[in-house]
Sequence to fold (297 residues):
Amino acid sequence: MSMTCEMVPTRLGRLKVEVEGDGPPAVLWHSLFVDSTSWARLRPLLRDSRRLIVIDGPGHGGSSVPPADFEFEDCVGAATDVLDALEVCDPVDWVGNAWGGHVGIMLGARSPERLRSLVTIATPTQPLSRRERIKIVPMVWAYRFAGPVPLLVNNVSRVLLGPDFVKERPDDTTMIARSIRDAPRTGLYRAMVSVMLNRTDIAERLPRVDVPTLMVAPRNDPMLSVEQARSAASRMPRAAMVELTGQGHVGPILANADELATLITAFWADPTSVMTTFIANATRQQQLPAPHSTERA
Fold:
């Protein structure tokens, strides 16, 4: 199957875009720190039913360094620049991992006519908590002054993938570590500040995302709880939360690629039925009586 690769001029610089597969258009936008190689296990499972448009975000992978710090709205503009350059007029199926989910949500809120459906994977809608900032700010400053030293790269990889994944899948761990290490240093630093430290609360945008949406939440993600994802989905007109076995922000799209592909392709085929099923399952779980405690008073 043929694949094309080009550098597309956008308001955030030239973005590397790969296009492969046949069918209606679907966009894949990755998480912060990694690049489009993080989709390596999922792409072959999706390209038979979609024309995949796989974007390296600004300051990541083969894309150029953004000219300055930026906001999610700028990423939305860059995404539409890509779609316009590729002459994509039909609504797209958007699949976003973490940062990519943020861009998809913001695009759906601003221009819902550009989306046919939206899948977010490990995408928190709330800004960093005080505790998270205390941990993350020193890491960002360390990267700024020292670059991708092994200790920093290894620690970020463990957070993105989960400790079990790092032990059990060394080849995939090496691939993710390489994407962190090889990213343009100035670009990745600007993205860290823009996408992570300066991340705003986008919860108020959720009611405006009137497209079929699945919010996939890994069970063991230190940056997003299942409860937070469920709350976010409840604020959207047509959304369901899906709990997925997996660790970290990025680990599930590699370790759980088969499960994710089955879910995503079923959702693409019949978004309403899939959402209804998960919403009904969640309702039944909430209605189950709490188990009686066996502890002695």
